[in-house]
Fold these 2 entries.
Entry 1:
Amino acid sequence: MSGYFGSYAVVVVLFLVGVAIFAGGLFVNRMLRPSRPTPEKLTTYECGVDPVGEGWAQSQIRYYVFTYLYVVFAVDAVFLFPWATVFATPGYGMTTLVEMFVFLAFIALGILYAWRKRVLGWT
């Protein structure tokens, strides 16, 4: 295919072929699998322990805050590795050093804010 929309048409066709293969695999799996539901098979399974009570439980919000902080610092680490490789490149030393200190200052402000709001205390 040639022309402006030719490359887009190839991408769309390949996408549709991929979706068809995926859907076909799911359909064939559903047709070939045995289906013998029993009450034991339909119960919720959690680590070999029979479920007791309702399935709803409250969670403390601080667990989500710690998870969010972990994600922030994991992203910080992901940005530090490319910086370390570019820092050694001639001509980029001072520029990358200043950019990294600005980035780390933003991270430090986030930690300071979390500390001032008493989010980092595990009580």
Entry 2:
Amino acid sequence: MNLVLLDTELEFDESVVAESPDEIRTQVREYERGDRRTFDLDVTYLDGLTGDVMAAMAAIPYGETRTYGDLAADLETSPVAVGQACGRNPAPIVVPCHRVVGSDGALTGYSAADGVTTKRRLLEFEARESGRAVQTRLPTERF
């Protein structure tokens, strides 16, 4: 199914969520209005490293970020492997892969529509809603 969020369409695999597509859409709309910071949805994590990364991403609080290296250290794997697993996340927003950034805060990728632009918008939205400053950079700013 496709979800529309902040004027961007995201591909979402509803088969990994126990609740109905209508309930998923309702909770995403609540998130977009600023009425929801966590999702009350039963997500089935994939097997293997991707599932482990999904669980780690789900633990990142609203309005905060972690680096690929942070997750890699916790999971005893490489940052590249974490990035690849993030790209396989079937439930973006609900499993917040947008909260994972490069070691220097660079927005190094996002597999949803409009890529890094969407990731930046989501992080800025959460920072604004939570009253935190967003500390990210575009990948081109790194070089």
